[in-house]
Design a protein that fits this description.
This protein has two domains: 195 residues, Aspartate Aminotransferase, domain 1 (Alpha-Beta Complex); 251 residues, Type I PLP-dependent aspartate aminotransferase-like (Major domain) (Aspartate Aminotransferase, domain 2, 3-Layer(aba) Sandwich). Strand 3, helix 5 and strand 4 form a beta-alpha-beta unit. By secondary structure, it is α/β, with parallel strands linked by helices. Bound molecules: ligand F0G.
């Protein structure tokens, strides 16, 4: 007989701690009022458990802190750059590595250096900054996610896959010349942190190669994606996450990366690619806006931390714990009857706020309303991923709904324990039990791009932008 544990433990112990921001209900109500009901506008000290994002919010390891003391801050030719460059090349195999201060800078440099207005850039789902960077350059961001990926309750192992037939049809319809780049976001953040299979990566890569279209990964969460492949894709159980990641990158021609996710660092990113001509154009674009090519947007010590982070993130024990943490929170929510995107993704649990708050129409932003309410009752901060964040428009400029109204509970890396997750599950279950008390939101301020960050709201009164009591909304639905 051998001891067979049923629990996945955190594969680390805690060396340094930080107090949580405890507040009273009255303090949270005042804070929320001041923030215009937008949790992005809260002060972090007013938040108890911060699941706003997994981006740049994780804990560094002792090895990373140690490496940071070795940072070489030379303007040109920094030793730390070469360490980071070889860490990136070991995983991606790409010839050129351009450090940037975060993912969106890599996106902006790539898009502005090599694309021209009017072009279409398909992806499974472009996340907020990617979409905004394309739109600001008059480029058309197209989401070609498989149908299963848009159905929160539907079980499918790779709900982040791109619909290859729709990609082929789009190329046939508009012509190869209007599609100078295809992207795939791994994992698919906008659609529930769902992975993309190697089979799908291979199929997209084959279409791109056949048409001579460069293919890039938005690789923020590449390690989580690799682990999902190891666990779910036939034939990969015995491969290491590193080997799988290498295979993923080998199918593409380059990547943009927010190292704030699977780089396990608080700030940083990169653009990596094979093509010499594109790389030269991107470097020349990068120098005036980010910095000299051997530091770009990063300090030497940040590049040191990233070089170590890229090793640590591919540890299968870490990745198993990471995915199990999301699965654990998901199971607790399901047990409480809370609808979530299934199966749980890598970096977050996504509550189906549209289904939970069925009395609110999409333009009353159920996800954002739930995030405000959840903060008010519990101090837990979360993030809407729905019609507010996507900000899709009809051809006439009026607002269009996103495929789903989700509330994301993002898990910062190596940060919160099971007890914290239990608290979150209890709070969300309470919100679900009191869902009829949650009113919709209406704008009192709306910015033209990336409006979710700075928006201000008031609770919608009966009849405003389709809000109203459960009974009134149900009555309207019956009339329809
Ligand atoms: N691509 C994806 C898929 C992302 O999730 C993000 C950031 C970016 C690009 C941009 O990277 O923040 O370093 O500029 N997502 C964060 C989030 C902010 O909360 O999911 P960045």
């Amino acid at each position: 007989m051998t001891f067979q544990p049923t629990i996945t433990i955190e594969p680390f112990r805690i060396k340094s701690v930080e107090p949580l921001g405890h507040t009273t209900l009255a303090e949270r109500r005042a804070a929320l009022e001041r923030a215009g009901l937008n949790v992005f506008q809260l002060r972090a000290d007013e938040v108890l458990i911060d699941l706003l994002t997994d981006s740049g919010t994780g804990a560094l390891s002792a090895a990373q802190w140690g490496a940071m003391l070795q940072g070489d801050e030379s303007y040109a030719g920094s030793r730390s750059f070469f360490k980071m460059e070889s860490a990136v090349q070991r995983i991606t195999g790409y010839r050129h590595v351009l450090p940037t201060h975060q993912g969106r800078a890599a996106e902006h440099i790539l898009f502005s250096a090599v694309l021209t207005p009017g072009a279409i850039v398909p992806s499974n789902t472009h996340f907020d900054t990617t979409r905004a960077n394309l739109q600001l350059l008059d480029l058309d961001a197209r989401d070609l996610l498989i149908a299963e990926g848009r159905e929160p309750m539907r079980e499918h192992p790779f709900k982040g896959n791109l619909d290859v037939q729709r990609l082929e049809a789009l190329i046939a319809e508009v012509g190869r010349d209007r599609i100078p780049l295809v992207m795939l976001t791994v994992t698919n953040n906008g659609g529930g942190g769902q992975p993309v299979s190697l089979a799908n990566l291979r199929a997209v890569s084959a279409v791109c190669r056949r048409h001579g279209i460069p293919f890039f990964l938005d690789a923020c969460r590449f390690a989580e994606n690799a682990m999902f492949i190891k666990l779910r894709e036939p034939g990969y159980a015995d491969r290491t996450p590193l080997e799988i990641a290498q295979e993923m990158f080998a199918l593409a021609d380059g990547c943009t990366m927010s190292a704030k996710k699977d780089g396990l660092v608080n700030i940083g990113g990169f653009l990596a690619l094979n093509d010499d001509v594109w790389a030269e154009r991107c470097r020349n674009r990068m120098i005036p806006i980010e910095g000299f090519p051997t530091y770009g947007g990063m300090a030497g010590y940040d590049m040191e931390a990233l070089a170590v982070g890229l090793e640590e993130v591919l540890d299968p024990r870490y990745l198993q714990y990471r995915l199990d943490q999301a699965a654990y929170l998901g199971e607790r929510l399901l047990a409480a009857g809370v609808p979530i995107v299934r199966p749980t993704g890598g970096h977050a649990v996504f509550v189906d706020a549209g289904a939970l708050l069925a009395h609110l129409p999409w333009h009353a932003f159920p996800g954002a309303a739930l995030s405000a309410y959840l903060y008010e009752i519990s101090g837990v901060r979360s993030c809407e991923i729905g019609s507010l964040l996507f900000g899709l428009k009809h051809a006439d400029g009026s607002d269009a709904p996103a495929p789903n109204e989700l509330l994301r509970l993002a898990l910062p890396r190596r940060m919160y324990t099971r007890a914290h997750l239990d608290y979150v599950a209890e709070a969300v279950a309470y919100a679900a039990a009191h869902r009829h008390a949650i009113r919709g939101l209406r704008f009192t301020y709306e910015a033209p791009v990336l409006r979710h960050f700075t928006a201000r709201f008031a609770w919608a009164e009966t009849g405003e932008r389709g809000g109203g009591s459960v009974e009134q909304v149900l009555a309207r639905q019956l009339v329809r």
